[in-house]
Amino acid sequence: MQTNQPITGADALMRSLISEGADIVFGYPGGSIMPVYDSLYDYQDKLRHILVRHEQGATHAAQGYARVTGRPGVVIVTSGPAATNVITGLSD
């Protein structure tokens, strides 16, 4: 891969997550986060996505995963109400 080729912000995020040791992401797609999900599809051999039913559940699952494995707990949600739904899980 050539290093002088431009990449999207979503691709940069995926590469950063992988370089930090992430292997699973928990999330709920929608709205403005879809470019990140499009990129996640291209990295599905390195990052497994767990679809949750609610954003708050994603934060609790990611936190439990991080505590048990020592790997980063990653949550991907969209903006607006989805972002506020993660607050309870983040506060723990």
From TrEMBL:
<keyword id="KW-0808">Transferase</keyword>
<protein>
    <submittedName>
        <fullName>Acetolactate synthase large subunit</fullName>
        <ecNumber>2.2.1.6</ecNumber>
    </submittedName>
</protein>
